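Lecture 7 notes: from sequence to structure.
We start with the chain below.
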Amino acid sequence: MSRVSERFDAIVFDWAGTTVDFGSRAPLEVFLEVFRRRGVDLTTAEVRGPMGLAKDHHIAALLELPRVREVWQGRHGGRPTAADTAAIYEEFLPLQTEILRDRTALIPGVREAIARLRELGLKIGATTGYARSLMNVVEPLAAAAGYAPEVNVCADEVEHGRPAPDMNRRVLEQLGVVDPRRAIAVDDTPLGIEAGKAIGMLTIAVTMTGNSLGLDAAEVAALPPAELARKLGVIAEEFRAAGADHSVRSVAEIPALLEKLTA
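Predicted structure tokens for the same chain:
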């Protein structure tokens, strides 16, 4: 038994921006497109704000933004309704499915980190704001690349998505973890951190590969090191304010962090 497994039983990862899809670009592209088709040009910041919610709730949250409501009313003659949310989501799913086939590459270092965490005695779980129909695309591709959590729970499989802890609870139940304090939540959004904190999990925020920075690997590599460090410092502070216990640039750094914490 390792010192890590003496303290922890399991670690639960988010997907897009945390273990796959560097920069969490796939959902961003689809949200921008489905709203553009309805005459509403969203900003990247607007789309990224509610990231971590179940995607239908994410759409509803975007429609509640004052600027978006105003533009929608000008284009459609009335405020957006629940029926509009449902219609956008119905269009979102097939578009997201199509994009996911090309946006599910493992983030560098994930496969090796997961292997090391298993060597340290941890069970591996996952949660996601994607619906099960979307994860039916993602999971086989990730597995073929070398990443397959023992349990994965989707937003449409629980009563409440993030920031509620329902998905985390379900994952831990299926992994046989009785005490959430013996589990770790890893996420690239404040909502995901809140969901872990809500049941007492140790929380680790991912600053570089996910939604907060929002850049793909090539864009990150093109940034001057000082500028990247400054941006990541700001993001880490935002996560601390949201309750994150620790932050890492990427999942690749987690095994070393846990070994340091339990030394």
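Points to note: The first strand starts at residue 10 and ends at 13. The chain is about 50% helix and 10% strand.
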